[in-house]
Amino acid sequence: TAAMASRALNLFTICRRQFGTTGSLASKVAVLGASGGIGQPLSLLLKQSPLVSQLSLYDIQGVKGVAADLSHISTKAEVSGFDGPASLSDCLKGSRVVVIPAGVPRKPGMTRDDLFNTNAGIVADLITAVAKTCPKAMICIVTNPVNSTVPIAAEILKKHNAYDPRRLFGVTTLDIVRSNAFVAEAKGLDVSKVSVPVIGGHSGVTIIPVISQAVPSVSFKAQDRETLTTRIQNAGTEVVNAKAGAGSATLSMAFAAEKFVDSVLQAIDGKRGVIECAFVESTVTEAPYFSTPLLLGRDGVEENLGLGNLIEFEAKLLQAAMPELQQNIAKGVKFVKERY
Ligand code: NAD
Ligand code: LMR
């Protein structure tokens, strides 16, 4: 029997290694703002994930049609649509992951901070419902301005004694996705093998690509590095201008959010070694929230992997980011202190 027990243990270890998990592989995921430009393609991508058992879609308009449409796709996830505030808690009940792309996008000439007045209240209200209904969920915030909406969410969660800094993420994955695409393009690399960390926040100068830490390592002339960095920082605006009033990035954002949610799902199901950058509560710099590479685990952030070595050019970008980042964060905190 000792031999049998040892064989069973070996088999268990092999299975764990093979599937990288001991979890249920079945999570309920809620998307808030599911009828929108991001919400629809994001929900489509999540419907294809084998890690999603239930896909719960919420919006204040049009979500029943989106849910009916997606529910005819022959994949595992069961889709339900929830229309309007009265159904929000039913949508959220039992969710392990909540993704929030609800809110207005930019038009040409606007900054992300110009969205604050409309989107701050939307995020605060949605997070209040999350705090009451599924306080243990992993919360992934896409709604801009991310530098402010994440502190808003944290302050609301604190008010409901439901704040766990390991479980609240501002989704900055699109900055990494873009950096990977642009670096691969510039260097003629296989983009599926390129990984560029992006730290800081998610707006203009607060976006800090750390090209010196790219994998595989790449070298650029100083001028080319600067041009590439500026393009990554302005990539959102590049799309806003190309869409000419019809909104901001939606398809690339859906891809990025699905990538991030997939990593969170794998980590909460027990996979080891999952690393993503995200905007979280942080002591890495003087800013109380900051994005850096994070090791994810069953309870969210397991370890903050920090800044790593920055070259002088990147250290200067970091310095330049701080005032705007601190202001954006303080504005979010103040909003909740004054209004809630
Ligand atoms: P959109 O206008 O196409 O869709 C937004 C959706 O949110 C709509 O369906 C709308 O009905 C819904 N909504 C509005 N108020 C709501 C509420 N109180 N509850 C639930 N749903 C509500 O906009 P979009 O292009 O999908 O962009 C959404 C947000 O994502 C914007 O704030 C945009 O700036 C942001 N964004 C962030 C990133 C990022 O990298 N983090 C990238 C792109 C866009
Ligand atoms: C992006 O980076 O594409 C988003 O933050 C949307 C925007 O307003 O640029």
UniProtKB/TrEMBL annotation:
Keyword set, alphabetical order: NAD, Oxidoreductase, Tricarboxylic acid cycle
Catalyzed chemical reaction(s): (S)-malate + NAD(+) = oxaloacetate + NADH + H(+)
Protein name as catalogued: Malate dehydrogenase
Lineage, uppermost ranks: Eukaryota, Metazoa, Spiralia, Lophotrochozoa, Platyhelminthes
GO molecular function: L-malate dehydrogenase (NAD+) activity
Subunit structure as annotated in this protein's UniProt entry: Homodimer.
A biological process term (GO) from this entry: malate metabolic process
Every Lactate/malate dehydrogenase C-terminal domain range: 172-336
Domain Lactate/malate dehydrogenase N-terminal: 28-170
Binding of NAD(+), residues: G33, A34, S35, G36, G37, I38, G39, D59, N119, V142, T143, N144, M253
SUPFAM superfamilies: LDH C-terminal domain-like, NAD(P)-binding Rossmann-fold domains
Family (UniProt): Belongs to the LDH/MDH superfamily. MDH type 1 family.
Gene Ontology CC annotations of this record: mitochondrion
EC category: oxidoreductase
Active-site residues annotated for this sequence: H202
InterPro entries attached to this UniProt entry: L-lactate/malate_DH, Lactate/malate_DH_C, Lactate/malate_DH_N, Lactate_DH/Glyco_Ohase_4_C, Malate_DH_AS, Malate_DH_type1, NAD(P)-bd_dom_sf
Pfam (any one): Ldh_1_N
Species annotation: Macrostomum lignano
Documented EC number(s): 1.1.1.37
Coiled coil start-end: none
